[in-house]
Amino acid sequence: MSVFTTVTPEQLSAWLRNYSIGTLTRLEGIAAGIENTNYYVTTTHGRYVLTLFEKLKSSELPFYLELMAHLARHGIPSPQPIANLGNEYLGELNGRPAAIVTCVPGRDLQQVDAGHCATIGGLLAQMHLAGASYRAEMPNPRGARWWRAAMPNVLPFLDARAAALLQEEVRFQALYRGEDLPRGVIHADLFRDNVLWDGERVGGIIDFYFACNDALLYDVAIAVNDWCGTEGGALDRSRTAALLAAYHRVRPFTAIERGAWPVLLRAGALRFWISRLYDLYLPRPGLLTHAKDPREVQRVLEHHVACEAELRSLFVP
After folding, report:
1. Which of 27, 83, 233, 269 could be disulfide-bonded to 303 (CB atoms 3.0-4.6 Å)?
2. Is the pLDDT at 289 greater than 60, yes or no?
């Protein structure tokens, strides 16, 4: 969530005439995140989030917007897309596809405990079950094919040790397919900054624009890597156990998922290491841009590669 495309109050006020959400009173750019242009929008009816899509095409966006609407109808705390007077979620603003959604309450947490992780584990499982009835499909845009394509672009920026690690992990992951794992719609980016807490409850899960169809366990692995990680890259045992147990109570893990667990943890770390390297060294121009440190997930991957037995011991739902 950065500002790559500037929107003035006058431009937005004109655009909002095609909606029934009141008149503009305040417009604020959102600095966090890295993919799209985002603004907080306050009108006489309430507070919303405006997104201008910088990479995604108009033809791709109905998948994400309809998914948010689907999950909200099924009780998952997530932003609700707002339809315009033509009953469409998607519009265009300043030459970019644009949508406006409800602003969910709360703030993200950087320090979390086992209780927070248990809440996230249960909610993620509920989201996977709710997504089972969502019929649209989207192949993972940041999957193995993307890893292979992006790797040559970031290798020149790495030292010899990091470059060897990246190349070996891409080779390793190519040995595994994962088609036999339970699959469905996943969030694919459930980091701490994409969950807003309203007191002790989750006010909303946000930023569904990497959502896709993939292994459900991959979604769990991405969440565990962030919610349960330590500064050195290891996983905190109590937080990991809490998240996995809470998930398992809602959607029990299968035997084949247990076997695939270390591989999926490594895959989750690899995906975000490559994307953070790309955003750091090959950024797009924009205002209020924010790039996350790739070394954080590099340390996670290094730990996972070295400690497979430990990872298997942590998978005790």
Report:
1. 233
2. no
